[in-house]
């Protein structure tokens, strides 16, 4: 891990404690002489109420839990640092976006949306990607998702969406899944959700890793510069490793084999020094171009196609340190899209406007009152002064007799700051109109960008979409709901609707489709970066392997940034020729093919039939998930026996240098979709 401390690390130091080697005390500092037995009247007598240590210990335990988040309950976090590549002073006066010499501490929480705190992580779902920047001007929270759009256009409908998405109230099922009647009934009755549903049915909803997942601010914000000029902006996080996903069968099996798969991947990558990196990108539209496009730029169900509004890469965030305590940091962190700094402002996006109220309101009940900003993980690195007082969990000890504005007794301090002194000034947007409950006509096109998304997918991604709709709707009991969803998505693509209609027992539509022919290559994961870095390869070894060859291959794989784990039939070491010994990381019983990006099978001259059976299962399952396979020495025959030899992404050979080179290329490709034709 990184040894360099950020400003936030230094601030948190005063709150950290290490109990090792210390005497036990009560919360009030009294040393405790016994922690096994409660105080009783005689050895077999009743417990005495005066046992203050027992009362304190049990009371604290009884109140350990706080309400979990209604959505985004299942999450994991890490500390990082943001560096700016180039000053954005022509767009904004925000200090952390204009001073390239600064390194801004950050805290990121990744999460699923639908499931409870105890749910599995590789479910089909949108993922939260929330970033807290601890700037010198205050905290800025970029509270986003791994999908750039949302289900609804107005925050008024958010409770309805979540009620429909959550487990059905009459039986509490299903957990962390959208494959049920109420969710799809909501979709069919609220067609503004079409674009977001396309994303959540795509591979984007089952990411390979938090480290290989894009992040989006979703909403349209404003950047305001020192001159008071404003630009519309959307924020992007681009993972340096590229954007990659699991396949559905694999994701379901991982949920059973390792429900902590995503948090484990993030935690281990940081512990081993493979720090996750994300580049910050912005899309900028001048105010005068607000109505230039064939969609409303304030509509949260619409994205700005990158081919029309290019993403400018302006900085990079690196996650360098794991949390010290999951509850104190990951659970108590409070994000809020209303936490902005001078130079960043809001727009009239009606979903954003509602979030500006909802997020604070949520924290008041979840974290016990209005002082949640004083919890260590939420405290800004800059000092804060105001006339707020008291309330649950107050930590600040305010001195003096004055807690109001204006005052003479304290020379009218704390004093509001002028704009020149760094005071926040809201952008002066001209607003006029009648009070009305209505939606702008410019928000009423629900299918064009859903069609754009479909048009942008590769053939295998389109096939995955059809299969995802088939699975999800195949779990829906109501024929009426299935029919209305088929009818709805016939407006997006007739090919798509016909493709899943026949799989769910609905008469395929005869008419429909979209006139949209435009595509956006940036939306397809087929066009992402492909690197071998940090990919995990399972190496299947048996006693009697070619020692020098294998050691050489493993060393070369590691030099390419690939993580190798040795799998055998027993723990301990596996012994090869030339007195070679290699430590076994996992047995066939303690791991599974779905937990690896690729497999490299070697075998050995002493493997038994049971070993070959286990190895064949691993290889066949990985092959079915389109993963790269490598084999040398004895294991080449395993490929042939299982009819895997010679297929795309299957590499074998005896020249170790050429084998490793070809295998690394296969691993970099992530998946080999040509096998879908087999």
From TrEMBL:
Cross-link named 3'-histidyl-3-tyrosine (His-Tyr), sites: 336-359
Annotated catalytic residues: 72, 145
SUPFAM superfamilies with a match to the protein in the record: Class I glutamine amidotransferase-like, Heme-dependent catalase-like
Main EC class the enzyme belongs to: oxidoreductase
GO BP: any one term: response to oxidative stress
Role summary: Decomposes hydrogen peroxide into water and oxygen; serves to protect cells from the toxic effects of hydrogen peroxide.
Protein name: Catalase
Underlying gene: katE
